[in-house]
Design goal:
Shape: globular
Number of helices: 12
Distance between the termini: 55 Å
CATH superfamily: Ribonuclease Z/Hydroxyacylglutathione hydrolase-like
Largest sheet: 8 strands, mixed
Number of strands: 16
Number of domains: 1
Amino acid sequence: MKFFKTLKCLLLAGVMSFSLAALPACDFEEILNGIFGGEEEVSSSSNSSSPYEPIGDGPTESPFTQEEVQTIAAGDMSIHFLELGNKYTGDCTLIKVGDTEVLIDAGSRKGSAATIVPYIRQFCTDGVLEYVVATHAHQDHIAGFVGTTKADGIFESFRCETIIDYALSNSTAAIREDYEALRDAEVAEGATHYTVLECWNNENGAKRSYTLADGVTMNFLYQEFYEKETSDENDYSVCMLLTAGENNYLFTGDLEKDGEESLVKYNDLPNCVLFKGGHHGSGTSNTAALLEKIQPEIVCVCCCCGSDEYTENVDNMFPTQAFVDRIAPYTDRVYVTSLVAASKAGYQSMNGNIAVILKDGQNSVLCSNNDTLFKDTEWFKRYRDLPDAWK
């Protein structure tokens, strides 16, 4: 089945112009739509005026040591932001509370499954993911659910009990078809599937709030693009607030400005210990209105920092200067998973895999490569301006 779906992508690519022949068809739609949804208006960065060159040639893989895995597992709860085994930006977040695991997204490419699956198995020892969330139908969020002929995806590697995903999508990409076919096969084998709108409406057995452990809840938040069509696929993103006692953690997928405005309008958002940086640290997300509400203490960005995958404008490369400027008044505790490198692989670890650990009511951050704050990295010093709040 996977062979014919892959062949379909290749055949679709064959009808494109010669200059686009090297692109997989499942990427083409996203590039046309534009991850940024248009040109960003960002402040000019003096550091970015010089020609862009990738920095360093560090390790492409920096797994946690066994001792670090034990330290993380000893926490009351852990939230993991994964590296994805390639130079492409994408999201994959694992939440572990006791014997319950929640997986949010699995990017960035089908081959990322070869990196994601072994990582999860370090912490999910029973082979069961109690909850799987796919925020929206872009390949950098769902391709790892599918996998390849050489590396089984999430649905083939774990038993997934409850699958919650987007209510709407405009995508005609093959990767969406592949994801939904495997999701439906998982349902045929006993999994339960809900859309986020069903969760919000408490319909058909779905719930707005799920208890993961004593005092820990996974709460799906409303935003209007669950039931209102838009040309921006990112605004269909599932939004979720994780609450553990007095601690709040916010996940918004690739929600853009309009979606964030709706999220703020319809929800009484609390201050958040952790915010997964919206849309990989884009300037078209992470709006001042949202940040003023949540006032994050820790921000984790899932991206391959400095990639020209979507733009050659250095200011707009993830994480963008606009993102930095808006986050700065609230915190300098910003961590980034990966970095473009001047190596054959084209990428290396920045912070590496990032784990936010809750133990006895206190949150700490442990990274597999290093714990260097984004502002203190060589990449930042070369290509970003330091905001006044960080001076």
